[in-house]
Write a structure and sequence with these properties.
single chain; alpha+beta; six-stranded mixed sheet; 6 strands
Length: about 280
């Protein structure tokens, strides 16, 4: 059993065109024959083009309004979508992995249990749908993010593959080496200063908004905004009945049935008036 799994895995990694190679081909196709005008940017939105051309399966992340949180959906090549989980924005663990473009280990376990075919060379393509900035509730802005595996997910995959059967330590190391070679980007060993400057600039633009102080300040302001506006926001779609009952419960102000002191004094003023008891001068008919 272990030999069959290892052979199939190595066959898949060696003889199928990797996603990175497909992105490189798409970049070359978009740059070749393009006008050499510096006002235009070529080779952008490569992941979007590859997903649409090859009809790849994606993991959908829906960003709903603040009171509804965000949700995860699985999309198959046939077009069917199934929602897996819905979380509030206070749960930032998955959002941190998404911002860093890293594959979270808890997501790997969830996808393996659902038996969804969304892995491409160890990576997962995420389709982000943002409903927060659109006036129409059914419209959204779409963007794609590629989640790459980390050392933590690699160790989890090796342990999951070798948990059944009697694997020797040498076989585990060979399996981990094959997975590492096929899931990680090739090393750049060019000692040229130009290459170093390009890599340094790319790293700066990728991580300039990910400093610890900036993220800490953003989270603190976001929590204050949530706590301030949560009471005025409507209930999520799954709690519309609760919102309706709460609105009609406090629609009318409470009526105070107790009489004030001025009311008591106004009622007893008739006792202090003098009454005219003179008989009528005209006969009563």
């Amino acid at each position: 059993m272990k030999i069959t799994v290892l052979v199939l895995l190595i066959y898949y990694l060696y003889f199928r065109q990797s996603l990175l190679e497909r992105l490189l081909d798409c970049f070359v196709d978009s740059v070749e024959g393009a006008p050499s005008d510096k006002r235009f940017r070529h080779g952008v939105h490569l992941l979007d083009k590859v997903v649409l051309q090859d009809n790849l399966s994606t993991l959908i992340v829906n960003f709903h309004p603040v009171n509804e949180g965000y949700s995860l959906k699985l999309k198959s090549p046939s077009g069917t979508e199934s929602e897996t989980i819905r979380l509030p924005y206070e749960e930032t663990e998955f959002l941190d992995y998404l911002d860093a473009q890293q594959l979270p280990p808890m997501l790997v376990d969830l996808l393996e249990k659902s038996k969804a075919n969304v892995f491409y060379n160890g990576c997962v393509i995420v389709e982000v749908r943002d409903y927060r900035c659109c006036v129409n509730p059914s419209s959204y802005d779409t963007s794609y993010v590629l989640l790459r595996p980390t050392c933590q997910t690699l160790v989890a995959d090796v342990n999951a593959l070798t948990c059944e059967g009697e694997w020797r330590e040498e076989e585990k190391i060979n399996l981990e080496a094959e997975l590492l070679l096929k899931t990680q980007s090739p090393l750049c060993l060019d000692p040229s200063p130009e290459v170093f400057n390009v890599v340094n600039q790319m790293h700066f633009h990728k991580n300039k908004y990910r400093s610890t102080l900036l993220q800490r300040s953003h989270k603190r302001r976001f929590r204050a905004y949530i706590s301030q506006n949560r009471s005025s926001l409507p209930a999520p779609s799954c709690l519309k009945l609760v919102d309706f009952l709460a609105h009609h419960k406090h629609a009318q102000p409470p009526v105070n049935l107790r009489l004030s002191k001025s009311s008591y004094s106004g009622v007893d003023t008739w006792k202090q008036r003098t009454l005219s008891l003179a008989p009528p001068t005209e006969p009563v008919q």
